Amino acid sequence: MTKYFDEAKRILAANDRGGYTVPTDRLYPFQWNWDSAFVAMGFATYDIDRAYRELERLAEGQWADGMIPHIIFHQPSDTYFPGPGVWRTNHTIPTSGITQPPVFGMALRAVHEAAEKAGTDNARARTIVLFEAALKWHRWWYAARDPDGTGLVALLHPWESGSDNSPAWDVALARVPTTTNTAVVRKDTGHVNADMRPRDEDYRRFIHLVDTYAACGWNPAKQWEKASFKVAEVQTSAILLKAGEDLEHLAGQLGLDAAAEELAAFNYRTRRALLAQWRPNLSRFVSSDLISGQDIEAPTQAGFLPLLALDLDTDLTQALAAEMRLWSDGMKVAFPTTKPFVESFEAKRYWRGPSWAIINWLLIDGLERNAQAKMAETLRSSTLDAIETEGFAEYFDPITGEGCGGLGFSWTAATYLWLAR
Ligand code: DGY
């Protein structure tokens, strides 16, 4: 065990670029938003100062309107596409123009609690500054990405989900043109096998959206109007709600009553909206395609993520857990991000089937919350086994267990530190 803890810490140290951690060398040479939030929780298990630093460096990229972008380009690198010249955001510290799942609030609570436990100096002051950043970001989500006040937040780009090429986007993304003003010069396929990455056609659509939003000057209202991809998404909304609960809890601890009340109102709205996305015939929750008005029924992990943020009734939990068992049955490493063997399932291609340690972490928390301790423990121990057997890979082929994508991966190291602690 100690050997793996040491290896996980060694990976985080190797990926440190000065107070922030790159997901892995070369393939992702900058600071990524939700990666860093998971990494901060990993650091919180042994180095509280460094855990705060990770979040502080992420908050350096926050925009005046509250958005925390999905990439912060602290230093130049020529091993990644699309770089700052494609995003054209004109931010002082160059950043991308879109966001990513708001795990930040969850991480802040974890770091704060670790600091309190250890009696760390300055913990309260450092937490308060980061709390203000997180609150501004949650306000941004509700204003910019739920202007109609539905309680579910929308994504305007598949990269915002973190699950870039999930089958969940196939129908919605097919409406996005493949034409681009920017030349698409991929670098990712020079680092890992092209069969493990999104397709060229996906990239052309990804960049078409970037061009469209850059032409809107990254103004959220204009983007909302011009978006040809607009999905009210359950995984992101569940993470927003869980982070919102954690921030509400922190606000209570810190005596920030007005903030606690504001967050409680956001959380209430999202809790109700998420519950309404349950589909008994599928035994899953579904996202909505806001352009067609249709449910997104593609079977992906996102349908189970609301476990993380809701206290479900027993019948619903039983149905959901039974469906999860069905997907996991016969897999060497659960939890597959697409239902095994449906047409869109590909065991090695990024978000179209592989198992990801951070998704497992969120599902484990959700299963525990909903009294599924045994299932949570099975998933926890199989995630740790996969890492011990294959190393700290970006993700795992669920059928063979093979480690895939980038290696020496920061969030896989952080997950190990957290789940094995
Ligand atoms: C990538 O470049 O693959 C990232 O996932 C986008 O954020």
Structure description:
The chain has 421 residues and is mainly α. The protein has a domain at 311-421. The chain is 48% helix and 5% strand. The chain has 15 helices and ten strands. It has helices spanning 2-14, 33-44, 48-59, 84-87, 104-118, 123-145, 170-174, 200-215, 220-226, 234-254, 257-275, 314-328, 357-369, 373-390, 410-419; strands at 31-32, 71-72, 154-155, 231-232, 278-279, 284-285, 287-289, 295-296, 395-396, 403-404. A four-stranded antiparallel beta sheet has the order 3-4-7-8, with helices on one face. Strands 1-2 form a two-stranded antiparallel sheet. The protein has a two-stranded antiparallel sheet with strand order 5-6. The longest helix has 23 residues, at 123-145. It is globular. The model has no long low-confidence stretch (mean pLDDT 98). (2R)-2,3-dihydroxypropanoic acid is lined by residues 70, 159, 164, 188.
Give the SSE layout:
Blueprint: H1 2-14, E1 31-32, H2 33-44, H3 48-59, E2 71-72, H4 84-87, H5 104-118, H6 123-145, E3 154-155, H7 170-174, H8 200-215, H9 220-226, E4 231-232, H10 234-254, H11 257-275, E5 278-279, E6 284-285, E7 287-289, E8 295-296, H12 314-328, H13 357-369, H14 373-390, E9 395-396, E10 403-404, H15 410-419
Antiparallel strand pairs: 1-2, 3-4, 4-7, 5-6, 7-8, 9-10
(2R)-2,3-dihydroxypropanoic acid binds at residues 70, 159, 164, 188.
Short synopsis of the structure:
The protein is mainly alpha-helical and 421 residues long.
